[in-house]
Amino acid sequence: MKLKRICSAVLAGLFLVPALALPALAAEEAPAQPQTLEEKALQAVTLAAQYGGADSVRYALWEDGEITLQGGYGVYSRTEDRALTEDILYGIGSVSKTYTAAAVLLLAEEGKLELEAPVTDYLPEFTMADPRYRDITVRMLLDHSSGLMGDNTRSAFLFDDQDTAAADDLLERLSTQRLKADPGAYSVYCNDGFTLAELVVEAVSGMDFMDYVRQAILEPAGLTNTYAPGDDFDTSRLARTYASAEDDRALPQDTVGIVATGGLYATAADLASFGGLLCGTELLSQDSLDLMNTDWAA
């Protein structure tokens, strides 16, 4: 099976907005088996919504360089009369990290940084109370093997607030911390590594992180529906989110102040199209794609 065919199956952009628990299918009445691709997609997102207790799901399928199918299930809002259209945005959470990895790899391809170079080569102001920090390489930030504690995110998850203090103050917080392991010893999920990578991208490119992502990745690919909290866009396009199934009051806009770690918004089509870029060499070289798919922890 060709890689692009595999990618077309994998890169369906599914978004679940936690809230309303939808009724289960009646056990005594088995639904008809879906026949067309559209029917199969609708069945998949229906089950996903039921399982996840979601108010809305948007999906998109990328194949052979284009979006070949997209649709939605559920409601944009419990109280507002607005259709769940193709332009509805969702926070994509930690999928944002993939954009960050792509940005770092692009800079490496341009010869502006070395993946195996110490982070301190690009952020000389980065220090810790543990001398082993000098051994942390740029690659280790991306494969979660830096040894950082990774817990400097508590002030990053906000509502209707574009405060970037969580990223701005990271170096100061790290300066008093120690590592939990030798750099490169093993991989454990680490948000702080990607916030450090955000700072590396800014230092090396001389640009704001999102400006670089937009210039190097989004604009060349025609991805015009991907944003960060600080961008100028119509925030009413964000699907409504809720605290519980019982409370119909929509929460304020969710904002994540560590953009490279988890702060991006996108439509299903934009996300699937970005994923499609990683199934070929339109964005990154094959060498970079091979690096991205290497199990460094093995």
TrEMBL record:
Keyword set, alphabetical order: Membrane, Signal
Gene3D superfamilies, alphabetized: DD-peptidase/beta-lactamase superfamily
Pfam families, A to Z: Beta-lactamase
Cellular compartment(s): Membrane
InterPro entries named in the record: AmpC-like, Beta-lactam-related, Beta-lactam/transpept-like
Signal peptide interval: 1-26
Domain Beta-lactamase-related: 53-292
One term under GO cellular component: membrane
Designated name of the protein: Beta-lactamase family protein
Organism for this UniProt entry: Candidatus Intestinimonas pullistercoris
